[in-house]
Each structure stands twice: as C-alpha cells, then as structure tokens.
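Whiteboard transcription, Tuesday session. T.W. wrote the structure tokens on the left side:
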C-alpha cells in the first residue's frame, strides 16, 4: 500500500516490508568510483555486504549495501540504480531476515520507462 509522497520521497508499506524511493541528484564531473565512494561515506557504517552489478536495458549499473539488524527491522537494503548521470535510491526494509530475496528481486526489477510522444510525425525515426 502506498503511503504517499513527502519531500520527493515515495514510500510503500506492506506487512513486514517497507520500500522508500528517492530520486538522486545528477552527478557532474565524477566517475563511477567517485560516486560509489561518496554514497558509501553517506551510508551507515559496517554494512553486512556490498553488491555491484553491471546494468542492461538502459541501466548503467547497480550498487547495493546490505545491513542486518536486531529489533523489528531485521534488514535494510540500500539499492542504487544508475542511468546516465542520475540515479534512483531505493531502500528496502524487512521484518524477516530470511526474506532478503524479496529485497534483492525488487531492487533488480527497477527499470527505466521511456516516454514517447503520442504521435510520431511521418518520416521520423521514432517508434511505430
């Protein structure tokens, strides 16, 4: 169930799961290593694991930091999906650490949606 949007952050909640989506700022004059280092410095210390993956279908690459916790929230997965000079931050939390597959599957399912004009003029090279 979608909770709503506040300050550009969209949150969805379901029993035992929360998903928060935050559009990232464009990066200028930085390479991938600099961006990852900057994100790493801003995240909580001592992640359980870090994951990096090459992208496809318009996704440049993906990076994630996993944290296991005690208490009501058993894990947090901070996932980043990079497209060009921008990124989308997705934070998945769950009450059952055995359910990490949900978070990783959801993070890997983030795609880009290309918006095409309703009409394409004759002779253009747009979609038909």
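and on the right, the sequence the group agreed on:
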């Amino acid at each position: 169930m979608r909770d709503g949007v506040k300050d550009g952050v969209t949150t969805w909640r379901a029993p035992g799961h929360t998903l928060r989506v935050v559009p990232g700022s464009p990066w200028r004059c930085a390479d991938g290593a600099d961006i990852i280092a900057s994100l790493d410095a801003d995240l909580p210390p001592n992640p359980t694991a870090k994951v990096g993956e090459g992208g496809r279908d318009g996704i440049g690459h993906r990076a994630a930091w996993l944290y296991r916790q005690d208490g009501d929230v058993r894990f947090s997965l901070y996932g980043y999906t990079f497209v060009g000079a921008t990124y989308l931050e997705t934070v998945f939390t769950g009450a059952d650490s055995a359910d990490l597959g949900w978070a990783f599957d959801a993070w890997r399912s983030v795609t880009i949606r290309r918006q095409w004009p309703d009409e394409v003029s004759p002779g253009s090279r747009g979609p038909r």
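Someone added at the bottom: The longest strand covers residues 75-83.
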